[in-house]
Amino acid sequence: MIGFLSGLVLFSDGQEVILQTPSGLGYQIYYHKVLVEGSSASVFISHIIREDSETLFGFSSLRAKKMFELLLSVKGIGPKSAYAMVATLSIDDIITAVKLESKNTLTKVPGLGTKGASQIILDLSNKIDRVKMYSDATIKGHLVGTPSEFSAVELPLMEKAPTATTINQNQELINQHQIMQDTLMACKELGFKEDKIIPVAQRILAANLIHKPEQLIHLVLKEM
Hints:
This protein is an alpha+beta fold and 224 residues long.
């Protein structure tokens, strides 16, 4: 499964991007951003495999990718509908709409009716907070915290080929994600609720240099 790609932007029109990796392969990715052709870019990928096709959907952050994949777990929501939702609404808007049961917000997504919005709220009301455990940081060289994950026109995600520093930063994001997952699992096994664990763990991660899950688990439990 493909989860992340870096390479040269050969084509970009705000709907799709063709990214040529250093191996020479060109990947066609659904991507609701305009990237500068001829620049280098990095994209988180959700790789959808069907019996008769394989499709790549691109995201600027790990949190956006995980939100897309969570939406796919909803009955009746397919990849294109899920992607349209993440393209139309910000991740925070989706989380808030589900928690407040705001069908009006969700039905702003083209093609999503009241029935679909109700199903999303029903299926995700107890799961939506888990998306917050994933990093919303974008790759170095790209703007962070834009109102939508998919602005109409963006700067390239990376203005230069990946450096050792960039690779280390990306690896650190992956390491923190794993530490957060392990901590969440351990604390849930001890009876603590996910919506209580996540904000405490995120705050501790932001304020401390954590290298192992055991460190974060210990600090979280001290505050629970």
